[in-house]
Amino acid sequence: MKVDKGRFLILKDVKETLETETLGACVALAAIDRENKIAGLWVFVLPAEKILNPKVGGVSETYFAAEGIDSFLKALKEEGADLKKTDFFAAGGARFLEAPTVFDLGGLNISMLRKLLKDRGLALKGEECGKPFPCRIIVDVSEGLVTVKISGEEEKTW
Amino acid sequence: MVKVLEYVFEELNTIPNFPETAYRALRMLEDENINFEKLAKVIRYDATITANFLKLVNSAYIGLRRKVESLSQAFALLGLNQIRFFLVAACAGQYLNRALHGYGLSPYEVWLHSLGSGVFAELIAEKTKASHPDHIFTAALLHDIGKLVLDLFVGGELEVIRELVKDEGLTFMEAEIMVLGTDHAIVGAELLRRWGFPQEIIFAVRAHHDEDWMVQNQTAAIVAISNMLTNLLGIGMGADGLSYRVPAKLLKVAGLKDRELFSIITEGFKRYQSLKENLLVEKV
Fold first, then answer.
1. CA-CA distances (angstroms) from residue A14 to A3, A4, A141, B108, B218?
2. Which of A54, B80, B172, B198 is most open to solvent, judged by the fewest CB atoms within 10 Å of its CB?
3. Is B109 in the A-facing interface, judged by CB distances under 8 Å?
């Protein structure tokens, strides 16, 4: 099942995969509770709504890391996940070779994600972020595997 | 390398001309007092362009309340720039609908990248009240047309190009030039020159990855930014990805302030999503 940018999906104990499109500077956060066989995948686009100037209406809170993270974690818990036993992995956050800070959306997204998780007593178990090349992430729910595919590199599986 | 260049230019000769129907229509659209009945008569001779045009117009992002079924009906509802945008996009779809294996893109992704860039260009041209919005979105929609020609050659040398990017810190375009003797921006500009497009459009396509050239005028800057934002969102992001440098004064030349960029990303993403959801059926 494809997970669109600015959305998340959570599945429990099914023979199904969750996968993103090419991420660009967007960041995908995969969550796996292997014991309870629950997996979630969320793709956010920007670090926080407050950086929008002017504001833009009609955007889902899960488009933003800061506004969307609690909805994602809450949905995982409601599905039966134990966050203390859940492993988190991130991918995406592509960055230009050289760019002014305002264009470093990938760097901003990754930093925000690490901070938001830390504030909640959580941490990433693995990450493949910040490379300039196309990247996708695939979560195999029943096998409890997370695979990152970066163009021109060998797949990495956690 | 000379031999490769010869092949590249042979390949350039195999790309069909830009549709005569579109040229005639775009020339008619230069007249603000255009007769829309005459315009419809010109366009409807090309069934593919007409069908693509109506599909694009019926995408949700321009907020039409009812389905448009004829060119005359569409012209009555759209502004001149919207008509130009959808006309060029309808034509671009005829070219940018094939897989680019060398750049790792399916036909669907190639088309999405072109449309995404066009949507961002149109939005930024609106925000900055740019003087030539039609040139801006035309260049944005066609900016990667050179990849059609270079695809085969890049595919054969992709590993070498990638190594130069990774190990030498070159941009993808610099590595393309080093390995092939040319790059997709030069080839695209040459194609548009042969097709008789205005110099401003040709320059913007030529400049879209060159950090010195893209800051020479507003049109080139907006086209380069539109491509960058489309890639930042991962929309049809090819093997070259973000292997480029962004000059410090790019936003200023485009007429944008730093603080506006994230709102533009969000507004453009909304428009793009609407277009994609209403227009396209995935053909990966």
1. 16, 20, 6, 29, 52
2. A54
3. yes
Q: What are phi and psi of A64, to 5 degrees?
A: -110, 140
Residue in chain B closest to A26 (alpha carbons) equals B233
User: What residue ranges do the domains of chain A occupy?
Assistant: 2-157
Q: Which long-range contacts (CB under 8 A, 24 or more apart) does B182-187 make?
A: B182/B5, B182/B8, B182/B150, B183/B146, B183/B150, B183/B209, B184/B144, B184/B146, B184/B147, B184/B149, B184/B150, B184/B154, B185/B143, B185/B146, B185/B209, B185/B210, B186/B146, B187/B8, B187/B12, B187/B146, B187/B149, B187/B150
Q: Which of A28-32, B8-12, B68-72, B122-126 has the lowest mean pLDDT?
A: B8-12
pTM for the model stands at 0.91
Q: Which residues in B lie closer than 8 A to residue A132 (C-beta atoms)? A: 165, 241-244
Residue type, A19: E
Name chain B contacts of A102, Cβ cutoff 8 Å: 251, 258, 261
ipTM over 0.85: yes
In angstroms, the first-to-last Cα distance of chain A is 19
A2-157 is classed CATH 3.40.1030.10: no
Whether residue A97 lies within 8 A of chain B, CB to CB, comes out as yes
Is the pLDDT at A146 greater than 50? The verdict is: yes
Q: Position of tokens 């993103």?
A: A20
The residue among B280, B271, B237 whose CA lies nearest residue B97 is B280
